Amino acid sequence: MKLIGNGILITRNSETPLLFDGCVVVDGNLITDYGKTQDMKEKYTDSEFIDAKGSVIMPGLINTHHHIYSAFARGMILKDSKPSKDFGEILENLWWRVDKVLNLEDVKYSAYATFMDSIKNGVTTVIDHHASQNSVEKSLFTLADVAKELGLRASLCYEVSDRDGEEICNQAIQENVDFIKYANNDESDMIKGMFGIHASFTVSDKTLEKCVEAMGDLDAGFHIHTAEGIGDLHDSLNKYGKRVVERLHDAKILGKKTILVHCIHVNDFELELIKETDSLVVHNPESNMGNAVGCTPLLPIMDKGITMGLGTDGYTSDMFESLKVANILHKHHLCNPNVAWVEAPAMLFDNNRKIAERFFNKPLGVIEKGAYADIIIVDYDSLTPINENNINSHLLFGVMGKNVVSTMINGEFVMFNREIINVDEKAILAKSREVASRFWERV
Ligand SMILES: [Zn+2]
After folding, report:
1. Ligand 1 centroid to 79 CA: how many Å?
2. How remote is the CA of residue 319 from the centroid of ligand 1, in Å?
3. The pLDDT of residue 298 is above 90
4. What is the CA radius of gyration of the chain?
5. Quick one: which H or E segment has residue 283?
6. What mean pLDDT comes out for the span 400-409?
7. Which 8-state DSSP code applies to residue 247?
8. Which residues contact 139 (CB under 8 A, 6 or more apart)?
9. Do 164 and 149 fall within a single domain?
10. Looking at the DSSP assignment, which residues form a beta bridge with residue 33?
11. How many C-beta atoms lie closer than 10 Å to residue 55's C-beta?
């Protein structure tokens, strides 16, 4: 049994949102109790005490849309590439060149780098969307092996698309099915599989049908980019006479476990379909701004009661950074300084947890009895008073991912005092630079 105490405890449960001199009790992989440090010490005498030294103790963060495969693009210079004029050209000139040449060694080291970065930013669960078009087979298993070695909770899927021909498309479908069968029967509840699809504009009706048929009764949920660029909407209207969400709805892609990423160019009719089917939406503010694809209609989506979470889309692994940008993007976009104060933290702290709980078997992203022991210690000494009503303001303006000191996942520390526990971080990053430089030559 472990006690993490002597900290400002932010629980995210409604009963006791904030507790000074708080302490969490961890038994095995679960949180079994919490309370005042002295009380917990007296109640659980035979336990290891971890002193948070006045720092914040809070639930680990969840990233509901990430791209490990994009890691090696950091710092890469494509001398033969023209500047991209729009999102379609960004995909063609950059990302579709990257995912075409990734081999399984690249996949492995980009996973080490991204997962270690996630842990260092206090992220304890990552929902990823993967592509490596000429190394499809075993790619998800490679990612899963790294997540297991580091001790991180992850949901993985492969993005099916028609863009590299039927054979690769069929391999991608098979990789999703194989991985879902493997992961979703695993009792540890650390690794899950979803069924990935790239986007409406890169899959024919026939491919969508094949995906639905291959999913059968696996009930893993689809994970698909949805109406991200205006081109996705135009493609769907031109080829099928339907808007994107309507097309996906008619193809039986929507549902309680389906994640529709972005949802920028959607109208009210489409939001009704998302609401009716209780499908999930994930917003990625930095990526949307960087790709200049437009701004997700945050307020209409959340006013409808749709569960919308916050992701990073490969842009960063720091969820506090994503929170900060979500907060200001909508104020800027709507020319209204009064919006998104509630919605931005709700996406990260409430809805990401609700999304993850549709895939994992026990509560996570919360400190309460019976939840998974996914806990972070955050170095934060406040210059102003903290109370139950201003917690989100302190986290928004006072904390970055780099303030996370220690990260516990499933009851085990995977980072302690900024040191990654299960692997040699420096050696892996050195190897990662070596692998990445060979990868750059092939792009
Ligand atoms: Zn994405």
Report:
1. 25
2. 15
3. yes
4. 21
5. strand 280-283
6. 98
7. H
8. 104, 107, 130, 132, 158, 175
9. yes
10. 25
11. 20
Kindly tell me the burial class for residue 211, based on how many C-beta atoms sit within 10 Å of its own C-beta (0-12, 13-18, 19 or more): buried
In angstroms, what is the span from residue 3 Cα to ligand 1's centroid?
38
41 and 108 within one domain: no
Q: Give strand pairing partners of 319.
A: none
Structure tokens at 320: 């506090």
Q: How many residues does the chain have?
A: 443
* Total count of domains within the chain: 2
Give the whole-angstrom CA distance, residue 354 versus residue 349.
9
Amino acid found at 143: L
What global pTM score does this model have? 0.98
Same domain for 98 and 19: no
CA of 16 from ligand 1 middle (Å) equals 35
Q: How far apart are the first and last CA of the chain?
A: 49
Q: What is the pLDDT of residues 113-164, one digit of tens each?
A: 999 999 999 999 999 999 999 999 999 999 999 999 999 999 999 999 999 9
Which residue bears the tokens 């979803």? 194
Residue 94, both tokens: 């950059």
User: Residue 19 belongs to a domain with what CATH number?
Assistant: 2.30.40.10
